[in-house]
Design brief:
Strand 2, helix 5 (76-85) and strand 3 (90-93) form a beta-alpha-beta unit. The protein contains 8 helices and 7 strands, in the order H-H-H-E-H-E-H-E-H-E-H-E-H-E-E. With 196 residues, the protein is an alpha/beta fold. The longest helix is centred in the last third of the chain and has 13 residues, at 125-137. Residues 15-22 have low confidence and may be disordered. It has a 7-stranded mixed β-sheet, sandwiched between helices. Helix 7 runs parallel beside helix 8.
């Protein structure tokens, strides 16, 4: 078991709702989730729930020193690990529900892309809505939001409710093909143009 997997598993056992996974995401899932991060220009990219950093590494690869990257992590231990591992990323130990305030504290007004590793299907309706409201209000009008869901969560009421919430809050929502090379298999939601 790698160090990241051991840390993730330990944190999951301590707080399964906020950690939401037994192990970090695979590189293949990270590539799919981070596809909306532009490879040109100076975008502001916000990452929610980065954990040990598989999406962070892919975002940094795509940005290649351009733009701004703000990573918001609720778990203090993972936030500390992330900050030491990625010194070029603004890592914030904080709550994604405070996204507009966190952006402002870093001199940023809006996000062009929001990449989410949050376990949406584990959240109750009120928390899903509060977090999505924070995401949408912090995004630029042409912004992109991307997140993923595990295949086994598809039949859950909370997962169906989250898919409906995406359709309600974005003009376009496109699910990806299943990413089988992830444990467990997952698929990605790419959403664009938030409805404020």
């Amino acid at each position: 078991m790698s160090n990241d997997t051991a840390l993730f598993f330990g944190q999951f056992l301590r707080d399964p709702v906020t950690v939401g996974a037994l192990a970090p995401s695979s590189r293949r899932l990270a590539r799919s989730v981070c596809a909306p991060v532009p490879e040109r220009g100076e975008p502001v990219v916000v990452e929610l729930g980065p954990g040990t950093g598989p999406f962070t590494a892919e975002i940094q690869r795509r940005l290649a020193g351009r733009g701004r990257h703000l990573a918001v992590e609720l778990n203090q231990r993972m936030a500390g690990l992330l900050a030491s591992r990625f010194p070029g990323v603004n890592v914030v130990h904080g709550d994604a529900a405070e996204l507009s305030r966190l952006l402002g504290a870093h001199g940023l007004s809006q996000a062009d892309v929001v990449v989410s590793g949050l376990p949406w299907a584990a959240f109750p309706d009120a928390l899903q809505r509060r977090l999505m409201g924070a995401v949408v209000s912090a995004m630029s009008p042409a912004g992109a939001f991307t997140t993923f869901s595990y295949v086994h969560a598809i039949p859950l009421g909370s997962a169906r409710r989250f898919r409906a919430l995406l359709a309600e809050r974005f003009e376009e929502v496109v699910p990806s093909r299943t990413v089988w090379r992830n444990a467990p298999p997952a698929f990605v939601f790419h959403a664009r143009r938030p409805r404020v």
